[in-house]
Amino acid sequence: MDKEFGTEATTALEKYQGVVSLTKIQAREVLATLWPGAEKASPAEYFKAMMLCTQYGLNPLMKHLFLVPFWNEKRKIYEHVCIQGITSNRLIASRKHHWTFLDDTPRVGSEAEETKHYGEVNPDILRCIVKMRDVETGAEVTAWGEWAKWKINKQGQKVPNQPKGVDKGNSLINMGCIRAERKGLDMLYPADMPPGDIPVADEHFIDGEARVLPDDAEEVEDTYQESEPPVIEQAQQAETKAKTIRDSLSIKDFGGLYTACKEDWPAEFKTRQAVWKELGVSRQEEISDLPSECYQKIAAARK
Fold it and tell me: Hey, how many other C-beta atoms are within 10 angstroms of the C-beta on 230?
């Protein structure tokens, strides 16, 4: 920990080393110590990281997740993106299930496999395949992960799209396989895995401290995303989405707000059933038909 996070952080967080059942307060302390300023700079990503810790039994000190900084040229500050280590996904899936890989996967897909799935072979995109099976149920899934071989830099030049950590052994194939594996786990255990829009990377190639980027850094490499907006755009979209949920008067959106914040609700609203009773409904489908005044009534109760 001294090497990864520094002596000061190690002393402050030593009591949480190895703990996988952090409370919200404990998770906040760990995140604030490792990435000071992240909550103010990127509140939506900070909240996402905190909830991942508490809901899925993850601990940043065990490299389960990271708040990776990037430079926002417009705001002139370092913002952060919540990134999960691939090991954390394996851990979550293994707590309730026994699963295994099949057919020597994950690996680069063959031309025949790629043509069967995509209808063609794309020479500009590396496509990796994973086949997985739940040992107890026998359920099997096949998933694909992509990594663009090229990217266009700010000068308009086509250059190799190398992922971060190449000097430490990372590779295009490794990134493609990680993306395929994440999709496979999502397909095999959709009810147990964290939201699929949270980027996943190999924790061995993420800077654990992740506090400082070069002063002349122009952008963060698109190491974690697949056919999605650049990291900075994704962060802005996440913040916009969070604000929409907070400000929405749609009772249909209320379910998401309740799920995210139920620990802060008064005792009488600790269960979804209690909320439904207050609203006078008995089925999830009925919620979308309620007037916005009901949302305001429950939102007021939170305060």
Answer: 14
SS3 content of the chain, % helix, strand, coil (to 5): 50, 20, 35
Please provide residue 297's backbone torsions phi and psi, each rounded to the nearest 5 degrees. -65, -45
Structure tokens at 292: 């916005």
Per-residue model confidence as pLDDT tens digits over 238-267: 455 544 544 443 444 455 545 544 444 455
Evaluate whether residue 207 is within a structural domain.
Answer: yes
Within this chain, do residues 77 and 208 fall inside the same structural domain, yes or no? yes
The type of residue at 114 is E
Strands 125-134 and 140-148: antiparallel
Whether 292 has a pLDDT exceeding 60, the answer reads: no
Domain with 23 in it: 1-96+193-215
Tokens at residue 303, please?
Answer: 């305060």
Q: Let me know whether 109 and 180 are in one domain.
A: yes
Residues 6+ away with beta carbon under 8 Å from 159: 150, 151, 152, 153
Q: What is the DSSP letter of 163?
A: P
Torsion angle of alpha carbons 74, 245, 30, 65, nearest 10°? -80
Q: Give the pair of three-digit tokens for residue 105.
A: 């996967």
DSSP conformational letter for 195: P
Are 150 and 67 members of one domain? no
DSSP state of 22: -
Length of the chain: 303
Number of folded domains in the chain?
A: 3
Q: What pLDDT is stored for residue 140 in this prediction?
A: 97
**236, 217, 234: which is closest to 226 by C-alpha?**
234
The backbone torsions φ and ψ at residue 57, rounded to the nearest 5 degrees and listed phi first, read: 65, 50
Q: Within 13 Å of residue 129, how many CA atoms lie on the same side as its CB?
A: 17
Residues with Cβ within 8 Å of residue 100, at least 6 apart in sequence: 132, 133, 135
In a domain, 243, yes or no: no
Buried b (16+ CB within 10 A) or exposed e, 267-302: eebeeeeebeeebebeeeeebeebeeebbeebeeee
